[in-house]
Every structure is written in structure tokens, then in C-alpha cells.
Amino acid sequence: MGTYYDSDGSGSFNQKLLSRVDSLLNFNWENNSPDPVLPADHFSVRWEGYIEPLFSGYYTFALATDDGCRVWVNNQQIIDAWVDKNDYEVYGSTYMENGKRYPIRVEYYENGGGAVAQMRWSTPKMDKAIVPQSKLYPLLPKYDSGQKTIFNWVLAPNPVGSGYLHLGIEASHKEYLSLNIIDAAGRLVRTWDANPIDEAQSVLDIPVDDLAPGIYFVELIGQVYAGKTVKQFIKI
Ligand SMILES: [Ca+2]
Ligand SMILES: [Ca+2]
Q: Which residues are placed with Cβ below 5 angstroms of ligand 1, an ion?
């Protein structure tokens, strides 16, 4: 999803002028505007969604933008090139695990002249290519509007000794869940972002061998449901 703003030309996000689904980041607007409602110069864009890797590995993102860009994957900034520039590439890397979806945010601004925004990725096993549409997902999954996801979940065994804590989830819709584990002192000890679960039943296994004995809280945050529920478990 791309949100386009009026800008002072140095990266400000002023008035929102347009929201649309951009299924690829592969634009060369030259000296033109992305859309008739936008100026040809002095605009900014924020693209937000999820990205899924092709396989587990370190991915290098190569952003060719005119002018500036910055990129966050899994809520960590990997590229910061918030300056007037031509479309030479800037790079940032992150590890992504097969089967998981990670939140991604790309911010971009155009000052004057040519305007380019292209996002490629590569790994040691894969040549550089435009990130394909099939691996980019909109901010919220498609589902029947107006319906809230209902999910019930259990933690077992509880108390847990070694191995895995099993999280059983029953959801009425496909959901994207984020999970945080917080210790008794309020410290975040594990986080797990935006993983899809299907309708009906899913079981997630959380490794607990590295957790010190004590009381922990599991926060489960559903993005469609847009709510947070908390349960407690004890590591012995
Ligand atoms: Ca420019
Ligand atoms: Ca321009």
C-alpha cells in the first residue's frame, strides 16, 4: 500500500494526496508525476506491507531512488539515505526465515527533476531482481469486511520445563499474529512478528530452553482482530 503526500522537497510528509495499492516498487516517473493529483516535484511516499522471503537467508535490499529513501524490515531500519540523490543504489541487509512474513516500510521523497523508486533484492544464492509482487502483501489480509476475528488460545504444558511451549490457537479467520514474551520484570524476551495462521486450528511451538525459570507473559496481538490478549506461563 502506497500513501502519497505533498512535501517541501526535503522529505517532509505534508498533506496526504493519494492512497493506492502498488504491487511492485519499480517506478521510473522521469520528470513526470506518479498521478495527476500529485505534483511532479516535491512529493513523498510511504509504502507499507509485508514481505516474505523465497527461502531462509540473508537478503540484501538494493534501493535505487531519486531522491531519498529509507527502509525498515521487521521494524529495524536497514537503509537510511534520506538525502537528495540520483538513482544510484543504496543497500541494507537482513535475515529472513522461510515461511514467515515480515513487516516492511519504505519511505521515499522526490525533490526535483527525475523521480525513480525501485526495490531489488538478492542473496548469495539469488541474483539481484525486483522484489516480486508474489512476495509482497498488503498491510491487512483480505477478509470479509465487518467481521472480527475471534480466536481462542491455550498454552501447554504450563508450567513448562524444557523443550517447547505449545501455543494452540483457534481462529475464525485467517489472522496475522504477533507474539511477545515478557518476563516478570517487564522485559521483552522474545518477539515474533506478523505470522500468518489459517482458519481453524494452528499450533505454534515456542522454544523455552533459553528462558530462565520464572513467570512470563505471552501477549498475542491479532492484526485483523486488532486486539491484544495476555496469558501467563511458568518456566521451571
Ligand atoms: Ca529527483
Ligand atoms: Ca520530478
A: 66-67, 113
Ligand 2 center–CA 56 separation, angstroms: 38
- Judge if pTM exceeds 0.70: no
129 plus 95 within the same structural domain:
yes
Closest CA to 23 of 145, 175, 135, 141: 135
Q: What's the CATH code of the domain at 161?
A: 2.60.40.1930
Length of the chain: 236
pLDDT tens digits, 143-154: 444 445 556 788
What are the residue ranges in the chain where pLDDT is below 70? Answer: 139-151, 171-174, 194-201, 223-227
Centre of ligand 2 from the C-alpha of residue 235, in Å: 58
Ion ligand 2: residues, Cβ under 5 Å: 40-41, 115
DSSP string, 49-103: EEE--SSSEEEEEEEEEES-EEEEETTEEEEEE-S---S-EEEEEEEE-TT--EE
Does one domain contain both 14 and 36? yes
| CATH value at residue 90 | 3.90.182.10
Examine the fold and report which residue of 137, 171, 191 is the final residue of a domain before the chain moves on.
137
